[in-house]
Write a structure and sequence with these properties.
With 181 residues, the chain is mainly α. Helix content is 57%, strand content 3%. It has one domain.
Length: 181
């Protein structure tokens, strides 16, 4: 391969499967099963969210949890996986928002410590943080719709027994007042 071809190298993210041009960005160690390029996109999506905070701020925790649940790997701590899935469950099935989910995470962390290890499915949805970020070309409303669809796909991709375990732990540990429906 010659030097000109080096500019066309790409890398597949092991978590979500998106293929992105190789980046020089180095995010440092994390528990996410993500390529550096995908982690960079996640940062850019956060930047987009912050630039459009009045419209997208209510989805901040959902974005974090969708990315987390889509990028579970061998170095991901069990609590991280459970919390990401808990956030998806609380938003999608219980109508809970950012503050409710973050409060639930704190309550759960203080009440429980024997977090089960969940194995992610091979394909955790078809949408990715990259697709959500690309939707920004059509405007903030499209990003909002894509982000919610992304989260729904990630939640739906997890096996029913993992979903039920998260539901049961959440209902067992989190007071009902944090559920909006």
């Amino acid at each position: 391969m010659n030097a000109a071809d080096d500019t066309h190298e790409s890398r597949r993210c092991p978590g979500c499967g998106v293929v992105l041009p190789v980046s020089e960005w180095s995010p440092g160690p994390s528990g996410y099963n993500a390529s550096p390029e995908c982690a960079e996109v996640a940062g850019a999506l956060l930047g987009y969210e912050l630039d459009h905070q009045p419209a997208l701020g209510h989805l901040h925790q959902l974005r974090i949890d969708a990315y987390g649940a889509q990028h579970v790997g061998p170095l991901t701590r069990p609590i991280t996986t459970i919390f990401a899935l808990n956030g998806l469950y609380m938003y999608l099935e219980r109508g809970s928002g950012n503050l409710d989910v973050r409060t639930a995470h704190g309550i759960m962390a203080n009440k429980y410590s024997d977090w089960p290890v969940l194995t992610p499915p091979e394909q955790v949805g078809t949408l990715t943080a990259h697709a959500v970020l690309q939707a920004g070309a059509q405007g903030v409303d499209e990003v909002e719709q894509q982000l919610i669809e992304w989260a729904a796909q990630v939640w739906a991709a997890w096996p029913g027994q993992a979903q039920q375990l998260v539901r049961d732990l959440t209902v067992q540990l989190v007071p009902e007042r944090y559920f909006r429906r």
